[in-house]
Each structure stands twice: as C-alpha cells, then as structure tokens.
C-alpha cells in the first residue's frame, strides 16, 4: 500500500512574516532614533559653522576697540581661535561628549550653568503660553464652527477669519511692545518687565500665545466643520443629545489628532518665540541670554543655547508622536509604514 504523500500547505512569504513579527512601535522607534541622531548631528555641525559665519571677531569684542595687537593675539589664543578650524571643531565635539558646553567669552561663566539658570523661566513661559493656547483656541474654534454650520452667520465667520488672520500676522516683538504701551505704560495695570511676580508673566504669555491661539483656532474651526457633516454626528444629534454632551463626547475626540499634531508644532514654535519676547520684557530666560550673547558675539553661549533649544524641539516632536500613537494607533501604523 503506497503511503499517502503529505503535502505541506504553503506558508506566508518570509517578507510578510517578518512584517507581521515587526511591531509598529519597533519600526517607529528605529525611525525616530535615526531621525533624532540626524537632527543632533545637524545641530552640532550647524551651531559650529553658524558662529564661524557671523561677522566680527569675538576676541576684539572682548578686549575692546582700544586693545593692542598683542592683547588681541593673546585673547585669540586663550579662546582657541588661533587653532585650525578642524581642531576647533574636534575640541567642540569632545567638550559636548563630556557634557561641557564651554564657558562664556565675556563672563567666564560655564554655558551649562547659564542655560540651567535660564531654562526654568523659558519653560515656564512656554508651558503657560501653551495652556493658554489650548484653553482658548479649541473652544473658540469649535464654537464658531457650530454657530456657523450649514452656512449660517456668514458675518461671524468672516469676522472670525479676518481678525484671526490679522492677529496671527503680527510679530511677537511688535505685539509685546503694543501690550507694554497699553497695559503697562498707559493703564499701569501690569509690570512692563522682570519676573518678580506672577503678574509679570501676563504680558509675555499674551505676546507669545495670541498668534498661536489664532492659528490653532482656525484649524479647529475647519476640522470641526468637517466633523459636523459626518453621519455619526447627525445620528447623535437626532437622538436629541444636549449641545455640550454632543460636541464634547462625539466631536471633540475626532479633533484630538489634528489638534495635538498642530499643538506640538506650536509648542516647538513657542520656544523660538520666547527668545524674542524675553528680550522685550527682560524675562530672565535663555532667550534674553541668547540675545545678549549675539550682541557681544559670545560664541560658546550662542552655540550652547541654539543646541539645547534645537534638541528640546526635537524631543518635543518625539513626545507628540508618541502621544498620538497612544491615542490613535492608526497614526503610528502610518508612521511605521512610511519608515519601512
């Protein structure tokens, strides 16, 4: 009796099996690690070359206009500026690997300590501004979309679009100057500068957050208008749910992905905005220190500030992607698919 041949069922291709075994989080982690490494390398090279391309001689700025040629040579040697560019770069990278950001040319204070002293103030300003942005923009955008749904109240829609576009276009330093002139000088309601009290934070936070509030409110209004036309929301409205419950429970969750994505980009932008606003309000953060360093051509301080702010921006983008992946796995799969 002949033995029956056993035919093995064909299994899935090796590529498909490997794809199933690979977790979306693994692909996401690999992609973001490579991207973060690329950002870090770009920041290191960019900050080194940036200060080399800036006009002026920091050694001359250090000794003053009346310094002699011998004093200038001694200052350049002390700062390491008489070394070849490649040697300066390797010394710079070696210091970064040791956690040493160098010392200020002007004061001799370690750059790391200067950043450590100023970063809490900058972070406080940026985070408070982000809270204001989210608290104001999301309800404002949703309220305008609900009030104008189906082509109603065209005047309100036009006014909202025009006012937010105008406010969004005003630079932070101009807005900060106007706020100081109105609320600090004319009305004397709030202090014009410093960080001695909680009230001193009001004007800087407003100057940083008004533009982003308008930007995010316009996006939320557009996304809400799209959500209001969907069938599931019409069904929920047909069940005669109350307005707050209807929009908070059924409309808001569908806005989270786009809102958080744009909100993360806005938070990164707020870090840059605070650099300018801090100089207007004499806010003792890294922005004010960066402004003074640029005026004095203090290379190590400029390099350290830009490097740290750039790295924080990259980490914030990573955090936003992780939060989006946890809230909506579809975005994670899309990111992982793009990485493969």
Topology:
Layout (H helix, E strand, L loop, with lengths): L13 H8 L2 H30 L4 H6 L5 H11 L5 H13 L13 H37 L6 H16 L2 H15 L15 H27 L2 H8 L4 H9 L4 H26 L4 H11 L2 H29 L1 H11 L1
Helix pairs in contact: 2-14, 2-15, 6-9, 6-12, 6-14, 7-9, 8-9, 8-12, 9-12, 12-13, 12-14, 13-14, 14-15
Rounded to the nearest angstrom, the radius of gyration is 27 Å
Strand tally is 0
First-last Cα distance = 52 Å
Into which percent range does the helicity of residues fall?
Answer: over 70%
> What structural class do the secondary elements suggest?
mainly alpha
Strand content: under 5%
Unreliable segments of 5+ consecutive residues: 1-9, 14-21, 336-340
How is this structure best described in words?
The chain is an all-alpha fold. The chain contains 15 helices and no strands. It has helices at residues 14-21, 24-53, 58-63, 69-79, 85-97, 111-147, 154-169, 172-186, 202-228, 231-238, 243-251, 256-281, 286-296, 299-327, 329-339. The longest helix has 37 residues, at 111-147. It is globular and about 85 Å long. The two termini are 52 Å apart.
List keywords for this structure.
340 residues; mainly alpha; 76% helix; disordered N terminus; disordered C terminus
